[in-house]
UniProtKB/TrEMBL annotation:
Residues 1-27 form the signal peptide. Keywords: Signal. This is Secreted protein.
Amino acid sequence: MDERRGWIGPLLALLGWLMYLCNGVSAVPDVLMHSMWSASPHTMVTIYTVDDWVAVPGVNIDALLATSTTLLIKYTAIVSPLPAVQYGVDVVSFRIVVDGYPLPSSAASASYARPAPSTVAGYFVATLAAGNHSIVLEWRKEGEQVAAWSIDPAGGGCSLIAAAQRSLAWSTQPLVSLVTGDLPQWAPVPGMTLNISLAKSEILRLLYHVPLWPERSTCPECTCPTPGLIDFMEMVMCINDAILPATQSSVAMPSSIAQATALSADVTLPYPAGNYSIVLLWRLRSPSRRFWRSLPDLYDGFAMGRILAVFAQPPDTPVSTVAPEVVPVAPQVPQWFDVGATVAFNVTSAATTVLLTYLLPVSRLANPYFDVPATSDTKSARLLVDSAPYQSATSRVLATSRGNPLAQSAVALYLPPGPHTMQLQWKHQDGMNADDILTIMGSLASAYDTLSLSVEIASWVNAPYVVVASPIVVGVQNTPVVMPSSFGLADSANLSFNYPVVLRMTVDRGAVSLTQPLPPTLKSLAATAQSLLLSGPIVDMTATLASVTYVPPLNWFGAVTLSLQVQDATLYNVEPSFPASVNISIEIARVPVAPMIAMPLGSTVVAEGATVVLHGLHIVGDVVSTSVNGLVPQIVAVALSVSDGLLTLASTANLTLTMGTGAGDPMIHFSGSISDVNVALAALTYVPDYDFNSRQHVESLEMAVTDTETNLTSTASWPIVVTDVNDPATIALSQLQAQLQGFLVSYSDTATTLYVRLRAFSAKGAVQLTSTPGAAISSVPAAMVTASGTATALQTALNTLTYFRSPTYFGSEVVAVEASADATFSASQVTFLQFSLSNTTTT
């Protein structure tokens, strides 16, 4: 079994298309993808040479394939003997030659029986490599009784077609000879089986063509021909053990006739996804008990090629297999009659090649006019395209006695863009009356499953491209980004033509989606969180792209690449690939978060004159925002201060100090990474000032931390309790004011001017000194009072010290008395007075 299957690559015939694949945007807006070639003679051609294969003049194809491609090559020819002798056994044969290699499976033959034309058809499925290829139709004449064979373009002519508009192809073309005798039940034709698998629903073209040649029958008792007996050969496809009636073909042949014939079917039907076993069956009712043979190796091995093939068709393939009812109105004779429904199709975008094919097995029409073996009436079929008949698409059949009552033809036409129609017509000639014609037409109408009309359009590939107003789109962390409305698709030449395209959108992280449902004209081919594959008309697609939305990953920020690729849907159906992508950078900005200060657990207590180490103090940065580099590498600036003490960091490694040294400082400013800062804060040492304790005033660690990138700041305060050691007892005070006496001021030089500074630490307290001779005293009362003079004068003034407090203030109070011989107090002695203030208010 010669079985071929696989994805079919595109047929590209222009260098511009190759440039389009490389550059993403073509230098020319539209390029014709050659998926079909055809050749036909324009004048009558004749063969006189005997036993030599020669090319049919004008029937050759030169094809350039950009990729490895599977082609269905087909030819049909209406060949006539010259001159029209009465009897003869001559044969004319045809074959396809690809790149100089003749193909036996493509061969077909016609033998001479009567002076009338014969229809010859052959097929071949070939997978060809990329590059230039030649396809030639050759013919050969056998025998001397017929002087020549001719092909007349005006009488049907000859067409050689190479077509590759199929995404999946399976075929078998065995060269083993077949023979069968009387076979009353359906049986498989040896070697004519295909097993196929469909991943999705497909429209399948089912095709077979089997040439046959019955031997001449004789009576059992003698060697004379056996007249009056008619053999009936039938074939049909069986799919998954079910016979498909639409594929049935048959031929009836009198036992006295032994002429080459062929059984064919070519139908297009939808099939769902699944596995299928396709078997060609045959049966033979032969009262003459003669054998029927299929002999591919007859003559020189080029005589009777056969094929069984299945092709996946584009979803919009026009096809007709139904004939309408016939209106019983007596026509004039002779007259052409419509057979089957009119097939409408549309050529889009630009003028292109269209292959029109029909197959009408006349022998299956249940009418006595077709069952009379002796008649020599001629039956003709022709195609009307846009109501105009084409002689090159005419076929002729000479009754059943010819043994080949199969009207078929194919013609390739170059049609302009727009709507078109195809209609098959048929005519029975040679002296029939109107009632006979109506009877025959009724038979045609009831044989709807025997007619096949199909259209194949060489695809015009457009060059759509992505339009982006700005290659950068800005978004915010944890917020969906709606793409700008200027993002869409365009085609510089065919913007007004709403042709189908396939669009792929992918992001390297996050998710891309549509906020609106797809309209009916668009279809999702595949969808994941990070990609969308859509198909539909380009104008409709552009309108839908306004709802494209990107959703970044949770807490993620940074640059994301949205890649967009668009391809003409026709080319994508042949080869699912895209040109270079157009990229949009989506910049997701981080939402800044202020660093937080985590304070130690418990409380910090230290004795006056001792040292304490604070553990557990650390900075908490942005621990959720991530980028391609991981968590955010934050740099923070830290300010630490205490009012009456010194601080020492655990480490200054990798830190930048802007105030203090990091060891024994009341205020330290430094910056660094959060990890290095936390190392420095892991063991923070505090030493209170000499003779300072919390009886004097409350001590606290003041802390501020700032993100150097965002300038976001957090602050915190941590109390430090410094317990007193051998301090004087607390003075209990219930009045709102009290005069304090008992100060002694002494200095070695009684004439030297000394300086005194008094300060109440609470905001509700004040002190006052009475004016004293020899002493200069500042304004009173106040939170701080200064005085200067000799030791004697200052002692007198200090003994007039009065403390005042607000009626609403009670609790602890500290008054500091500082003495110095320097007006700047660069060196001084401090004495503290601690009060316990009673509550004087009543409730």
